[in-house]
Every structure is written in C-alpha cells, then in structure tokens.
Amino acid sequence: QVQFVESGGGLVQAGGSLRLSCTVSGSTFSITDIGWYRRAPGKQREYVAGISSGGSTNYADSVKGRFTISRDNAKGTGFLQMNSLKPEDTAVYYCNNPRYLRAWGQGTQVTVSS
After folding, report:
1. Torsion angles phi and psi, residue 78, rounded to 5
2. Where are the beta strands (DSSP E) in the chain?
3. pLDDT of 58-79, one tens digit each?
4. pLDDT at position 95, please?
5. Which of 73, 86, 90, 113 has the fewest Cβ atoms surrounding its Cβ within 10 A?
C-alpha cells in the first residue's frame, strides 16, 4: 500500500518561510511523480505544485515565484520550499502522486499570521 507522509508545517508570520517534506512508502520514490496540494478551511483541496520523476516542475499561478518544489531521490524525499508566505497560504498541505492519486495522508498544517 502506497502511503505519503508530510512534515515541516508550522506557524509563521506573513513574509516568512517554511520547508515541507514528503516521504513515500510502498512505492519506488525515484520513479514516483510528486505533487503538493493544500486544503484551506472551508475550501476544496487544490493543486499547488508538482515535480515529475524526471525533474520537470509546474506550479499553480498563486504560488509561482514564491514556492519551489524539489526532490532528493537518494534520500527518498520531496520538498516544498515556501517563501514570502501570505495569510491566504494557510492550509493543510498534502503530497501525493498526481499521475495516480493514492490515499491521502494526514497532511501538515501551515498557518500564516498577518
């Protein structure tokens, strides 16, 4: 069974930074596409950024220029570097495989205070 585990969330002031991490079990990480998603209170889950197994990246317009997705295949970990955070980035952040969505993990809470 493929399981995604997110970590690295926290409380930060507007303009601050956080780095989220994503690990996967039950799947060979190096050939797994990784996507980051978020669900804000009262809203549907939305796509934030993705990185293919080959390293190609894409971003939602709302985070372009502020967030950077990366991966370290040797460590089996994906990352989401979030800079210039805004209160509207407050959400629970999840990772998953955008090509073949699996069961969602617990996510990691990111709270940005104004």
Report:
1. -105, 155
2. 3-7, 10-13, 18-25, 34-39, 46-51, 57-59, 67-72, 77-82, 91-96, 108-113
3. 999 999 999 999 999 999 999 9
4. 98
5. 113
Token pair, residue 5, equals: 């585990």
CA distances (Å), 107 to each of 48, 49, 88, in order? 14, 15, 17
Q: Are 68 and 54 in contact (CB under 8 A)?
A: no
Which tens digit of pLDDT belongs to each residue from 12-67?
999 999 999 999 998 899 889 999 999 999 999 999 999 999 999 999 999 999 99
**Single-letter amino acid, residue 82:** M
Can you state the percent helix, strand and coil of the chain, rounding each to 5? 5, 50, 45
